[in-house]
Amino acid sequence: MDNLVSLCRFHHRRHHEGAFEIRAVSGEPIRFELSDGTVLRPVVALPSPGLTSNPNVAADAAIALGRGEYFDRDHAVSVIADACWTRRAVVRELDRGGGD
Question: Residue 73 pLDDT > 70, yes or no?
């Protein structure tokens, strides 16, 4: 149990695809490294400039379009991350002259 780390589905899959390694170093926090040894540093999301909150919208205003089932935030983030990764792959392929 000492060497377990919680990853979202996207990063769990990327780890198994070989995108990065997870290293447990005695006395240090768990490290994420690229195959060349480059240590990946956490990225902190900053607020988007120009976006303001609307005081007329209640914090609980968002509702599910279904029948009020539980919102699976992990699944939602995973879907968005997968879409971003797929888009990057398509753009790279188009940049290489591939695709139709």
Answer: yes
Q: Which helix (H) or strand (E) holds 82?
A: helix 73-95
Per-residue burial over 45-67, b if 16 or more Cβ lie within 10 Å, else e, is: eeeeeeeeeeeeeeeeeeeeeee
Q: How many domains does the chain have?
A: 2
Question: Does residue 72 register a pLDDT over 60?
Answer: yes
How far apart are the C-alpha atoms of 23 and 39, rounded to whole Å?
A: 10
pTM, full prediction = 0.43
Give the residue numbers spanning the domain of 17: 1-42
| DSSP conformation letters of 33-63 | E-TTSPBPPP-PPPPPTT----TTS-TT---
Tokens of 57: 């919208």
Whole-number Å distance between alpha carbons of 95 and 97? 5
